[in-house]
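Risk register update: the risk of archive-format incompatibility is retired. Evidence:
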Amino acid sequence: QVQLVESGGGLVQAGGSLRLSCAASGRSIGSYAMGWFRQAPGKEREIVAGISFSGLTTHYTDSVKGRFTISRDNAKNTVDLQMNSLKPEDTAVYYCAARHQRSLATNAAEFGSWGQGTQVTVSS
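Archived output:
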């Protein structure tokens, strides 16, 4: 079983940047596709970005393309999400998730391990 812990959330003004980190423990995530999801109050959880086990393939939801970058370091067992040009609509709890397969997925139901989440608040 893999445990995931997110960090790096906080309060930032619109136009600012944050870097979220996800640290995995318990087992290596080197053979797992990983994803960052977010959930705003009253809304469903949505995929923000995903990355294949190798890091060679990534996926971004349209609203964050060109602003967010997902990356991974399999040697350190970490996955990061660099968020630039933040907007108030990016405000949400952000979750790191592991899919116990190598290929990308965008459906939350396909991810088997989840972190506890980190709050990101963007003020206007």
